[in-house]
Amino acid sequence: MPAGAQSYGLGFYSHEVVQDKRTTLDLSVNNVRPKDNLDVYFDLSFMPNHVIYFGYILRLIGDDKQNIDLVYDNQANTKHFKIIIGERLSKICFNIDDKLLFEHWNKLRIVIDYKNDKITVFSGKEAYSESGLQLKPCANYKLLFGANAYRQFQTTDLPPLKLRDVNVSQNGTLLSNWPLNEWEGNVANETVNQNNGTITNPLWIKSRHRNWQMEKEFTVPGDASVTFDAATERVLVISQDSLFAYTVNKTPQIISTAYNSGRQLLVPGDQALYSNDKLYYLYIDQLAVGTYDFGAKRWNKGFTNLATNNGHFNKFFSKADSSIYTIGGYGQLIYKDSVKRYNVITNTWQKVTVKGDTFTPRYLAGLGTNTVGDTAYVIGGYGSASGQQIVNPRNLYDMMRFSVKDKSFKKLFTIDVKNEDFVFSNSLVINEKERSYYGLIFPQHKFNSNLQLIRGSLDKAKYQLVGDTIPFLFHDIHSFSDLYYLPHSSKFLAVTLFRENDRTRIKIYSLLSPPEPLDDRVVEISHAGYLLWIAISGIVLLAIAGYFVFVKRKKQLVIPGPQYQPKTVLVPPVTDQQLEPEVLLFDDDHTKSHCKNSIFLFGDLQLFTPEGNEITKYFTPLLKELFLVILLYSVKLDRGVSSEKLNEILWFDKSEKSARNNRSVNIAKLKSLLDKMGHCQLSKDTGYWKIEIGYSHILVDYHNYLNIVSNKTKLNKQKIIHLTHITQRGNFLSNIEYEWLDTFKSEVSNEIIDCYLSFAGSVPIADDPEFLIKLANDIFYFDPVNEEAMILKCKALAHIGKHSLAKNTFESFNKEYKAIYGEAFERDFHSILE
Length: 834
Hints:
Blueprint: E1 10-12, E2 24-29, E3 38-46, E4 54-62, E5 66-73, E6 81-85, E7 88-94, H1 98-103, E8 106-113, E9 118-123, E10 126-131, E11 141-146, E12 161-170, E13 173-178, E14 187-188, E15 197-200, E16 202-204, H2 205-208, E17 213-221, E18 225-229, E19 234-238, E20 242-247, E21 253-258, E22 271-275, E23 278-283, E24 288-293, E25 298-299, E26 314-318, E27 323-327, E28 330-331, E29 334-335, E30 339-343, E31 348-352, E32 355-356, E33 362-363, E34 366-369, E35 375-383, E36 394-403, E37 408-414, E38 423-424, E39 429-431, E40 436-442, E41 448-457, E42 461-473, E43 479-486, E44 491-500, E45 503-512, E46 521-525, E47 531-535, H3 540-557, E48 598-600, E49 606-608, H4 621-637, H5 643-650, H6 656-675, E50 680-683, E51 690-693, E52 699-700, H7 701-709, H8 717-727, H9 742-761, H10 769-782, H11 787-799, H12 803-821, H13 829-833
Transmembrane segments: 530-550
Protein name: Galactose oxidase
Keywords: Membrane, Transmembrane, Transmembrane helix
């Protein structure tokens, strides 16, 4: 993972795509001195993991008459680089060592000596020449790299190459320079005379070091777990009935292998690990490990547990003692700080007694190890000092080092975050040589979140944002993300999992190494806790240009709405008829890249136009509050709000005239924004300001919520499932605080809890205990000390034989109850089960 390597140039699509999609670089040099030496030089590299390496690298054409070609032929003979003059194969042929050719830039120089009728090719320190070629002096030249369709010189054969810094000179005078350092577009900018070239089907290397590229997206039934085999560069996805292997190198492909051992029960929140040339599945609650036999296609163990008490824990394999270690995790409202060790030779578990600095209980941390696995680095996460979720949980930003040798933790430093809080994906990529780490961060308080790669130091509290963002839907154990590094392909892989409707969607993204900075700032924090921004003023303009490219790319990639999108763009309101059990409210089409025609109030406020563009960012704080006041009174009361009420809420400190002027200006702005939505207009036809919405065209989650909770006598399982889909985005307007909004928020929370409890009371525990457990957890999300939810969950867990989990639930409830009310809960465990 070289941090300082130059990551620019032009990549060429080759035989892996059809002829029309292959890359051409067309450059010209005109009015040169015909009889003087012509010197052409450039940097060349080959892209690894392709099947065919054959074809034209450069066709140098003089006055449309004579061609001098540099070709690559990987056929029988040992000299692959060759020079062709006209229709004759010259004697010039040479090789470049594969390691240099595929992993480094190589300088090639072609000197055409007309006076001596001679061509010399310089490759590294070697020179290859031939004389007596009958060269014809020319004044105008075409430099055609890769495929081309130019007159009689056209060709579609080319190797998968990378090119940069193309130069042409005569007698030491630089005539043309094409750096090929663009981010996008079909123009190769020339720096000497603005003699720009053209490109078809470009693959800009710099953008591949900045922009994550979707490698693969697929769905598996039920729960799934993911891990990575670095030696073969395979992503391994464990599903209930098959093992999916996505091979990144060579031709990317997915191979699915059904288990001969039958269906494997997977537990939400459990994880897999590939190490020691073996594939393991960690049933952490049962202190058990399943091992997969690739030859026999069998798992050696299967289990029956349906819930986990240790979600989002960290794990690693240590060669030093042939053991798997797990650290931290979360379950049953408790953050964990325990370290467990599983010896793969003796097949025994033990809880590790640790020493050194205090490791705060947490989950959603990032962990990486050195090569031998005797030292682990754990950074960040979310937890609390007591381990209890109810007692001051917070984001953590300390970097802890765990030593396998003496089982000790040492705190190295704490990074300081001035903006939005974040947690880490499960794995860090450690670069021991450079004393650095790479990790993926994301704000865990959002459902529609984004992953961001950072590069940090193992020795200092500094980090830098690198690469653009990846869309990520986060909903606790329904979601998982991880980061891997491919040593042979020199690229990072990010993998996201999201489970919904009893299916898990896997997305795999790649980014070339080294990753380009998101900007040119490095965040560095001393141990005293101050923040130092190091900005390089000479590249401010490049940062600005990079930002606009980043925004354009982000618009193409970010999934701003939840993946349970409406079946069609026309979204009907939720009615009792639509909520019959056989009717699907949401489809399973996860191929849409944008949520369209939607207004979301649960979680973050988001508005999406019919084109899928999010317009929330155009709302100023005042416009946002004005919009919400009118919208909530319109949707809930179907009436709207008076001008006097708006003045009272928004402009109470202004005179009547000033308030009226402010209101008029902002109403006009709001109308303009709502016009972008379509089927959504601001009116005052009834004397009240009201937002008229065509619910058959626009999804409004608050409107659907009201339709569900308005009649509790008609609740059914499908309605409850739909309600959880709405609320899993987050609490109602979770990041917005207005005094007038408190009543709405309180009412929403109470109504949701009442709906859940009302439905739970109508379902015998024996009929659907697993669903009732989930329902109780959903209630705890709004009210962590809800007595009825605790009793419901304990009874359901006891009914399916999970008495220890039921007891843990009761004890966790007791601790939180006492922390809030200052006294113990009056009933004991056995009484609530009666």
